[in-house]
Design brief:
single chain; 149 residues; two-stranded antiparallel ribbon; 2 strands; globular
Length: 149
């Protein structure tokens, strides 16, 4: 019964959809990163871990957006304020992570194909707009579908 209740939570669906869509995006954006001699398996593992991080950022941003409007179930509303808070939170986190990760020995490097703005890759910035909006839409539909049942 507890598993069923967790599936009624919007952030659960956001994490599920966010992970899956982010994984697809992460795999498709690999030509924009200098991956060195990673095998296909190592690339898949790295993309999977990055997607977990992306989903975590989405859930955190969802909580920030919920806090801004004092409503955890804002997905079903037409209010743009939480969506803006959600996107801005994610964009700020993305900019900070990209800045530090591309400059650190443990981080990643952009390939020559990556367009940048002030040293930050455009692809991860676009990712944070596209992927979370799709994940929000799918999460909204999933929550609405569970409520209808």
């Amino acid at each position: 019964m507890k598993a069923v209740k967790k599936l009624d939570r919007p952030e659960t669906w956001l994490a599920i959809h966010g992970y899956l869509i982010a994984f697809l995006w992460e795999m498709l954006q690999m030509p924009f990163y200098a991956m060195g001699r990673l095998s296909a398996w190592e690339t898949t593992i790295n993309c999977s871990l990055a997607s977990l991080g992306d989903a975590g950022i989405m859930v955190f941003a969802y909580f920030v957006a919920s806090w801004t409007v004092n409503d955890r179930h804002w997905l079903s509303s037409r209010n743009r304020k939480p969506v803006i808070a959600f996107l801005v939170t994610g964009l700020v986190i993305t900019l900070v992570v990209e800045h530090f990760a591309t400059g650190a020995a443990w981080g990643w490097r952009y390939s020559a194909r990556m367009p940048t703005l002030l040293g930050i890759g455009i692809v991860p910035i676009v990712m944070w707009i596209v992927v979370p909006l799709i994940a929000l839409g799918l999460a909204s539909r999933s929550v609405a579908h569970r409520i209808e049942r």
